[in-house]
Amino acid sequence: MGTIGLFKQRYLSSLARLFRADSSDSRWYIRKMIAESGMSERYIRHIIGEPGSTCIVYRETEEPAGFCILRKSAWDTACFGTGAGGIEYLIAGGNSESDKKKIKKKLLEAALQLSREKKIFFLNSKVESADIVSAHVLADSGFKLMDTIVTYAFLKKSRPRIVSLKGIFKVRNFQKSDLPCMSVLAAGSFSKDRFHADPRLRSRAGELFGKWLSGSFLSGTNITLYTACKGGRAAGFLLYRLDEFWVKECGFRIIGRGLSAVSPEAKGAYIGLVNRVVRDVLERYDAAEFETQLTNLEVLRIWHKFGFEFTRARHTFHKWLI
Q1: How many angstroms separate the CA atoms of 297 and 167, rounded?
Q2: Strand, helix or coil at 146?
Q3: How open is the CA angle 193-199-201, to the nearest 5 degrees?
Q4: C-beta separation of 234 from 227 below 8 A
Q5: Considering the chain, what percentage of its residues have pLDDT values greater than 70?
Q6: What is the pLDDT of residue 211?
Q7: What is the reported pTM?
Q8: Nearest to residue 104, comparing CAs of 93, 116, 96?
Q9: 120, 152, 278, 282: which sits with the fewest CB atoms below 10 Å from its CB?
């Protein structure tokens, strides 16, 4: 019989070893950095230390055999009007698939119990498409598949020259006066995402993206926002963030975790926005990451034209505890 408990400092090296052996992040450029001496321990320390995080550990001996992270999100809680969070990095050792499934099941049971204690009643979990065991464990526990997200990256070393695609839209820095109309655009531009797929969030899904844009603009921390215009009229926007952790630890300047939308009458604006991001990478960053739904073929074609490469796919699951 195994034992469930919370993270202790003496577990750090074991959790780092489990993380290195797992496929919870298949992005090769991230795994390359994590493989460096001591980097995996610093990364574990980083994800455990993020706001609202609790690391749950499974042990069969003195050494951990698996762990996951339960994270309560203050932003999601405020937006959804109920305690909200996520279960991340559902990682297990073990010599067989059945061993891994047993460990992940125990971790998930503990995470669900702790969620109730912390008054987290809405949970999401993203798992790599190759992690069939985690997908089965989540489904067996009542989690429902909402969407599949693909990540594409533009890497400076792989693409030293820009692909020139002419556009008729001017791209400039986002201005405060853009916020009202762009927030409305963000609220009405999405329908295939996990929020719209969830019946309990569908009616409020649009406003979430408007709030995300407004909140990101007002926070301003490591945020870059561009507006695409034609004839002085705003037709779309694109937002990205600089990941401070990789800059600090490795000097690797990677941007992403963004949001973009363009008016249905101005689809060419998106080409101009992506073109601007690619120029930014070539001038001052090392990589850019974009994510979208697997079925968003029009956007994927544009990324391909600019030389973005596929790096991973993740399934998103939701579960309500009330």
Answers
A1: 20
A2: strand
A3: 65
A4: yes
A5: 96
A6: 85
A7: 0.93
A8: 93
A9: 282
